[in-house]
Amino acid sequence: MGISSYNWDQPCGVNYLLQQNPEHVPPPPPPQDTRGWARALDGVGGGHMLLQLTATGSTDNAVVLTSLHVRVVGKRAALSWPVYALGDGCGGGVIPQTFDIDLDDSQPLAKPVAGQDGDIVVPAKDFPFKVSTRDPQVLNLDLHTEEHDVSWYLEVGWSSGGRRGTIRVDDEGKPFRTSAIEGRKKYSYWPDKSRWTLQ
Q1: Could you give the CA distance from residue 167 to residue 81 in angstroms, rounded to a whole number?
Q2: What's the confidence (pLDDT) of residue 158?
Q3: Distances (CA, A) of 164 to 76, 134, 137, 154, 160
Q4: Which pLDDT does position 65 carry in this prediction?
C-alpha cells in the first residue's frame, strides 16, 4: 500500500496554510515536490486533501482489502493562518475507486462515491476489493474539513487466506493534518512578478 499522489484531481492545484508573511515564502515548487516544500515551512494542508492510495499484492495470491477507517487523533479550531495556492491545476491505466471523507463528522467514514477516469464515470463501489501482483487497486480519497484543524491517519484492513491485518497510512510516521480555509487570506504566486499576491 503506497501513496502515489497527494492531489489526484489537480496535480498542482493545492492549498497550504502557512504561518508566514508572503515576502518570506519561497516560490511554489514543481508538483512532485509540494509535500516537501510545505513540510519545510511547517505548512498544513488546506480544506481538501486528495490522497491516491495504490495497493498491489506482493505475491500471486490474492489479497482482499476489507475496510478503510479514518482515525482522528486531534480536532481543534481551524487555523487562522493565510492560505497559499500552489497553482491552478495541471495535468491511468488502473481505474480508481473514489471515497468522500468528511473530517468534521464525529466519526468520519469513507463513503463510496462515483468517480471519474478521463471521460468515463466510475460507479461508486464499497469494500471489499481484491488485489494481486497483476491486479492492483487504486483508491482516490477526498478528505476535507470546512470547520476544524484535524490530525488523522488511515487504517486499511486486509485478508489473504487465513491471515489478516491492518496497514497504517500516515504522513511519513506522523498523522496527516488538514485545516479549514474558509474566510482566510489567500495568496497565489505570480511568476512574472516573482511574488505572492493576495487573491
Answers
A1: 33
A2: 92
A3: 34, 20, 18, 17, 6
A4: 92
Helices (H), 51-102: none
Q: How far is CA 107 from CA 51, 80, 190, 191, in A?
A: 19, 24, 40, 42
Q: At 9, is the pLDDT very low, low, confident or very high (cuts 50, 70, 90)?
A: low
Q: Whole-angstrom Cα distance, residue 157 to residue 159?
A: 7
C-alpha cell at 171: 504522513
Point out which residues pair with 111 in neighbouring strands: 100
- SS3 state of residue 33: helix
Contacts of residue 114, Cβ cutoff 8 Å, sequence gap at least 6: 98, 121, 122, 123, 124
Percent of the chain with pLDDT over 90: 55
Cell digits of residue 80: 487562522
Write out pLDDT tens, residues 76-133.
Answer: 999 999 999 986 544 445 567 889 999 999 999 999 998 776 677 778 899 998 888 7
Q: Which residues are CB-contacts of 59 (< 8 A; sequence separation ≥ 6)?
A: 132, 133
* Residue 70, H or E segment: strand 63-77
Residue tagged 491511468 (cell numbers): 92
Contact in structure between 88 and 98 (CB atoms under 8 Å): no
Cβ-proximal residues to 126 (8 Å cutoff; 6+ apart), any chain = 112
- Measured over the CA atoms of residue 140, residue 127, residue 107 and residue 164, the dihedral's sign is negative
Is-contact 62 145, C-beta < 8 A?
no
